[in-house]
Amino acid sequence: MTPGTYLAALRQAKAPGLRTSGHLPGLMPLARAFEGGLGTVEHQTYLLRAATPREAELAGQVAAGKLTAREVMRLSLESCDEATAHRAFRHMAARGTAVVPTPYSKSGSSCF
């Protein structure tokens, strides 16, 4: 799903006052989803993407067909940065987005 389609779906759901929850497409920067009104991020491992300064680069590689979602998680974990993570999580909280802490994989993280 493209970021534009994802954001349009969020707008349609929010118009009648529905709360949104979902998975995130590989091309969608997490900050855009937060700003678009995503109520809840499913799976804590999506937050790895927000915790790396390489998020935009990795999304570009997904768009080019060079990386899979699992590879993005691994590379995000390897490049996890505490300051980047804290900024992203503060932004997420300020926009009212929560996270469902169900794991998506067994990757684990010492970053946050």
Question: Topology, please?
Answer:
Layout: H1 3-14, E1 21-22, H2 30-35, E2 40-42, H3 47-50, H4 55-63, H5 69-78, H6 82-94, E3 98-100
Parallel strand pairs: 1-2, 2-3
Task: Give a written overview of the molecule.
- By secondary structure, the chain is mainly α.
- The chain contains 6 helices and 3 strands, in the order αβαβααααβ.
- Helix 4 (55-63) packs antiparallel against helix 5.
- It is globular.
- It starts with a helix and ends in a 12-residue tail after the last strand.
Question: What would a concise description of this structure say?
Answer:
This protein is 48% helix and 7% strand. With 112 residues, it is mainly alpha-helical.
Question: How confident overall, as mean pLDDT?
Answer: 87
- Show unreliable segments: none
What is the spatial order of strands in the main beta sheet?
A: 1-2-3
How many distinct beta strands? 3
- The computed structural class is mainly alpha
Biggest sheet: strands, sense, closure?
3 strands, parallel
Q: Helix count, per DSSP? A: 6
Strand-residue fraction? 5-15%
From the N-terminal CA to the C-terminal CA, the straight-line distance is 28 Å
* Fraction of helical residues: 40-55%
| SSE pattern, N- to C-terminal | HEHEHHHHE
Oligomer: single chain
How much is the radius of gyration in Å?
A: 13 Å
